Amino acid sequence: MDDTLPTHVQTVIIGGGSIGANTAYHLTKLGHTDVVVLEQGQLTSGTTWHAAGLIVAGLLKSEAECAIYTHGRDLYANLEKETGISTGFRDVGYLQIATNEERLHEMRRVAAFMRRYGINNHEVSVKEAQDMFPIGDLSDVVGAFLIPEDGRANPVDVTMSLTKGAKNRGARFYEGVRVEEILASSGTATGIRTASGHTITAENVVICGGMWSRQLGAKHGVNLPLQAAEHYYLITESIPGLPRDLPVLEDPSTYTYYREEVGGMMLGLFEPGAAAWKLDGIPDEWQFGEIEPDWERVGPDLEKAYSRVPDTMNYGVKKLFCGPESFTPDLAPLVGPTPELRNLWVACGMNSLGILNGAGTGMVLAHWMVDGLPPIDVTGINVNRFSREMATPAFRRDRTPELLGKLFGQHYHNENYKTARNVKRSVLYDRLKQAGAFFGEGNGWEQPDWFAPTPEQAKVEKYSWYRQNWFDWHAEEHKAAREDVIVIDMTSMACFSVEGPDACALLSRLSCNDVDVEPGRVAYTAWVNERGGFEADLTVTRLSDQKYWVIVGENSAGHTEMRMRRHILDDENVVITDITAGRCQINVHGPKSRELLSRISGADLSDEGFPFMTAREIDIGYAVVMAYRVTFIGELGWELHVPANQAVQTYDLLMDAGRDLGVRNAGMQTLNSLRLEKAYRDFGIDVDNTDNPIEAGLGFAVKLDKPGGFIGREALAVIKAKGTPKNRMLQFLLKDPEPLIYGNEMIYLNGKEVGYIQVGGYGHTLGAAVGIGFAETEGPLTADVVATGQWQIEIADEKYDAIASLKPLYDPGMRKIKC
Question: Which terms does the UniProt entry file under GO BP (predicted)?
């Protein structure tokens, strides 16, 4: 076989399953035709061949998810017209059922959002659902939703049709060729070497190796956290009268999907407590392989699955199949350029949804490679989002069993993973736990979410889309921030030291705002790409002529570091160091924060002596800390960057000195509600790489006339020159104090749908739920339109009147901050 292999191509793709075929297909569609696909076995022989082929949307909660899904569904429905090979797609419909009011409420919340992006998800009566799925026992069902255009496809046929389309445009596919090594020079991938020693040089190398991807990447220091797990489905013997076009049924209460399969019924399990498979690595020779089923382990799950279709127990089991599927720590794919090697790209970690999402993922990656930028928001799937700890054997062993059930079960807005916790902890963790902290997780960090009166009460009694047991405690934290003083452990914020003669040049090139400032000045800025889309929002602080600190949220740490490193020019001297682990960030905020800090520091903390947006070293007890006078909550306050070995002492001093001032610990829920009252933006949550600072209301931090310009300046100048945008980010406050908003709720202006809420929380000071989101109108969205329009927010099929504002509804003049 190696005798026929080329020695040089533009792009070599490793892996000939659904993802590799989709990537090749979409690259060639864009005219990028010098593509070779190398498959170590036969095409589809890894996991593609045994996939269930479901083309069903689930509950999608982002524009990106909707775009990826709808692209694949539409492609598979029409691909035969191009290639002459059927994908086996049949739009039999997709039913989701709810057996409790909480699940029904979640489905109603999400359905309107999905309809906005072309997915016809609508509620049907339980009787209608029963009529469509007559073999099911729906006696305990309280509601159902149907997407009639969804259905199923044949995974092997899909891959072969894609392969034919790619070949027709010049791509070449080779079977029986295992890639042994990714060749690299000076931090750049240059090609591959096969197991037999053949070398192919290439301008791009793409890992589409499915469950083998992690171990291939690890050989070259590339972090790809994914792990194979046992995945089961059962197929019954033929059932007389079973309709061939029976819709696919999904039931989170049994963690099972149901569909017809050659006259019988398929029961596909996504059971809680799944089993990881081959932690040490997947055998290279694994082809069309099956795992011996563990009947004893999955027996209880099968019993639960049968309870939805009890009549099927009268028919024999034709097959209990167990095969591996790969899963990532957050159940989102790994896509994009790798931080470790230039020109090395990845599309893997499909979480058992490789057929469903393969086409959309291949489309995104192809455009990213050819155009230089992705066509959709990729903050949730970018391969650079994970830290290395999440690829360790221990993490994969502990997290994987939870993932299948998490993918298919019932969801809540504030639910965290229970496994593989305590990966990263602040040195204040024990103090905060003793103080009653309930911890959530953020990029591996344990973060205090809210505080209970005692450690024993720090638990969620019942997850809900309505008020939970901690709601009033959170309200007290929020009130303390507005009236007294709070302390928040923000150590999870990533901190990078950027030093060298060219540090200023690098950061100026990346930043929309002016960062060539006097030492001691803090600059809030966005980083954007060539289209003007966000790549980060963060603070850049100049500490000396050649030294800066860059501080960014933990969810953006990997992307921020990668962006800095990728933009250092060959002749520039810049050293970037991640110093997060060496310091503890303690935020002190509230009207009494100056009084509290003055009790334990000799520094001049007056407005004149320590102005807003400045940074300097101050003493706190025995410690010397870097203090920033900034805020993300809209109150007077400071960020204290404390050496880790002095953080506990500093925290104790703050709490002891502030007792009579009403000092309270506060968590992430309170940080969110406070910042939403001030309408502060957060990259990766409410703005992403498809949004720009002008429309997001951050034009004040964009200096189009700064010397030397910046990446994306021209694009933002064009947007600015158009005048008042049609699409603008607004703040919304419900007039009714009872409903809650979290994100994805539709926005209406004068009865017309114009956008959706990006993120929401409860504004305890403003007295009702508050959120921010983009609204788009036919003409300019002027201040007058905002002020005079009739605004409503739709929550689970009900519309609620709301106030909209371009300016923060809380302290728009910033008097409380600059005092």
Answer: methylation
